[in-house]
Amino acid sequence: MDHRSRSGDLSSALAARLGARAEVSVVDLGAGTGSNLRATAPLLGPEQRWTLVDHDGAHLAAARAALTRWAETTVEDGDPLVVEKAGRRITVSFQRADLAADLPAALGRAPDLVTASAFLDLVSPERIVHFAAQVAARRAVCYVALTYNGVQRWSPGHPADSAMAAAFHRHQRTDKGFGAAAGPAAPQHLAEQLRRQGYEVLEGDSPWVLGAADAALLEELQSGFAQAVSDVGTLDALDALDARTLDAWSRLRRTGGVVGHTDLLAFPP
User: Fold this and answer.
1) CA-to-CA distance for 85 and 112, rounded, in angstroms?
2) pLDDT tens across 158-191, in order?
3) Quick one: angle between helices 161-172 and 215-232, nearest 10?
């Protein structure tokens, strides 16, 4: 889903900028299980050095295993891991780090590209300012994919859809470990801050467009959104929602939907 949803225009622009470079160094923040590397590496040149940064060692171990399966050849099974895929040699280091405490150390000295996927909407506006400043200090290209932008559309619809979305966004703005999160305002905050640093900023839509073939994901999203609304404790504060309405919303079988995301690509001055 993530790979098929990315903005093709921004992918092409990134490939045009960095794809011809013989070597490129990349830092991937909040790397999880390495999905962002697998989506982005085909856009870059023949020799790549990636640092995958995550606070969770289990995620990094899963990323190593997933990349080993994804590769055509594993040249070296150590640290770093060296894999070959589609004519590219990709050297991958795995760094466990607290991004809330020490972003500069996680970014290193001078990567060519700083990237993240489905991460910046968890971060406070103040930390987005800090992120943009740190990227600019290194004059790195910035590619941030699949940041949630607040768009939700469901099929069939339910009368409580708008109230549920509003309550879900309250949950999105709670502290996820990086201060009170920007949530769906994150794409706008990031674009503004990078422009203030003199960057040329390109934005593109990257929605999850879900249909009948995505029934399992639709059910998972519906359940997760309902749980988030319940957890944040806003039900009683919203006239349009109560426990009975939440239950009815959760039980409605959806056959399609759209969850909006924004991709951002920014070039240094």
Assistant:
1) 20
2) 999 998 998 899 999 999 999 999 999 999 999 9
3) 70
